[in-house]
Amino acid sequence: MTRRFWAPGRVNLIGDHTDYSGGLVLPAAIDHGLWLDVEASAVIALESQLEQEAVTVAPDGSRPPATGWGRYVAAVAAELAALGRPAVGLRGRLTGDLPTGSGLSSSAALEVVVATALCAVADFALPPLELAQAAQRAEERAVGVPCGVMDQAASVLGRADAAVLLHCGTLEHRLVAMPPELAMVVLDSGVQRRLESSGYATRRAELERGLVALQGRSPVAVATDELAGLVAAADLDEVAAARLHHVVTENARVTAAAAALERDPVDRTALGELFAGSHASLRDQYQVTVPETDLLVDLCLQTGAVAARMTGAGFGGAVVALVDADRAAPVGDAVAAAYQARQDRWRATVVQCRAAEGAGERG
Ligand code: GLA
After folding, report:
1. Cα–Cα distance measured from residue 253 to residue 220, given in angstroms and rounded to the nearest whole number
2. Average pLDDT of the residues of the chain
3. Can you give the CATH number for the domain in which 131 is found?
4. Are residues 186 and 155 in the same domain?
C-alpha cells in the first residue's frame, strides 16, 4: 500500500540567527514543500523528481554515503534509530515545488518528510517537536551545519494562515494569525550559497563568545539597555559584542512584530520599522546580508511593500516582503524586473507564499 507524506518549507518572518542561542523566531510553514509517496521495504530506496541520482541507504542509517542528498536520508534514519525506531525501510519517490538553496529550507523539509514517513512505516510515534529536533541533529550529522531548530520546527508546527511564535530555548510556542490583507512574497536573490561552506558556523562561534557576557542568562531575558554595561563588564571584543547586540535586539523585534500583526488594525508602520531594523542589524551587526539581498529589500520598499527583510541564514538566499494581498503578484514581478535592471549577474525568483499546514500523512 502506498502512503503519502508532506513536509513544507518555511519562510521566517522575523527572528534570524536567534534560534541557536535559545531565542525567539516567527516563521510560517508555506504552501511549497515536498511530497513523499512510499511503501515499506527492506532498505530505504528513494528517487526524487528534483535530484538526478536515486539513493539507497540502510534502514538504520549506518554506512551513509559520502556525498549527495542520501546523506540527509541516512542521517535522519540514524537519528531515529538512536531514539529506538525499528529498522523498517521504505521505497518511494519525492516530488515537490521547493527550490533547493533558495532560503526556503528545502533541506529541513527533506529531513522532516523522510522522518515522518520512516516513523509511520515503523509504527513509531514521536511528538512533533522531538521529530523536529531529530531532524535538526540530522542536518548537523549529514553536512556539519550546526543549525538551530527553527526550520524543522516550522515544518512540523505550521498551520494554515498562521505564523508560529517559537521560543527556541523552552520550545514554548503559539500561533500568530496572518492578517488576510497581507501576503508573503519571497524573492530569492539567486546568489548561490551552501550553508556548510558559508560563515554560519563562524557566526555561531562568534556569538558564543558574546554570550559569555550574559553569565548564563538567556538572551531573551536581557533588555537592550543592559547591553552596553554587560559588554563592558565582560570586556568583549567588537565582533562578539556586535553579534550579541544583534541577538538581543532581534529577540525584542520578534515579540514586537507578533504584537503588530495581532493589533487590530494591523500595525503596518511598526511592521515596516521592525523588518527594517532586523535587516539593518543582520547587515551591520551580524554581517550576513549580501549587496544583492540589500538591493532586493530596497526595491521591495520602493515598490510599495509594507515591510521587507532578508530571511533565513543569509550569505545570499532570499528576502521576504509583506505586501497588500491584492498587489502581491505585480509587486513581486516589478521587484524581480528592477533587480535585473540593476545588475546582470543574478536573476531573482519570486515565490508567492501562503502560511500552510505542517508535516504529516496526507492520503
Ligand atoms: C538557517 C538555520 C536556522 C536558523 C537560520 C537563521 O535557516 O537552519 O536554524 O539559524 O538559518 O535564522
Report:
1. 11
2. 96
3. 3.30.230.10
4. no
Please name the helix (run of DSSP H) or strand (run of DSSP E) that holds residue 39, with its range, or none: strand 27-41
Q: How far apart are the first and last CA of the chain?
A: 11
78 and 194 belong to one structural domain: no
Return the residue whose CA atom lies nearest to atom 11 of ligand 1.
Answer: 313
> Residue 161 catalytic?
no
Count of positions (residues) in the chain: 363
**Does residue 11 have its Cβ closer than 6 Å to ligand 1?**
no
d(CA 159, CA 44): 29
Name the stretches of the chain with pLDDT < 50: none
Same domain, 246 and 185: yes
| Ligand 1 lined by 111 (C-beta under 6 Å) | no
Summarize pLDDT for 60-93 with one digit per residue, the tens: 999 999 999 999 999 999 999 999 999 999 999 9
For cell 567588537, name the residue.
238
pLDDT score, position 196: 57
105 contacts 9 by C-beta, under 8 angstroms? yes
CA 338, CA 344: separation in Å to the nearest integer? 11
Q: Is residue 362 part of a domain?
A: no
Kindly state whether residues 186 and 84 are assigned to the same domain. Answer: no
Task: Compute the distance between CA of residue 261 and CA of residue 196 in angstroms, rounded to an integer.
Answer: 34
- Partners of 323 in the beta sheet? 183
Q: How far is the CA of 321 from the centre of ligand 1 (A)?
A: 18
Closest ligand 1 atom to the C-alpha of 145?
8
Last residue of a domain, one of 126, 154, 175: 175
Q: What is the whole-number distance in angstroms between the Cα of residue 39 and the centre of ligand 1? A: 32
The boundaries of the domain holding residue 78 are 3-175
Q: Is the CB of 78 under 6 A from ligand 1?
A: no
- Residue that finishes a domain, picked among 124, 153, 175: 175
Q: How far is the CA of 40 from the centre of ligand 1 (A)?
A: 32
Check if 250 has its Cβ closer than 6 Å to any atom of ligand 1: no
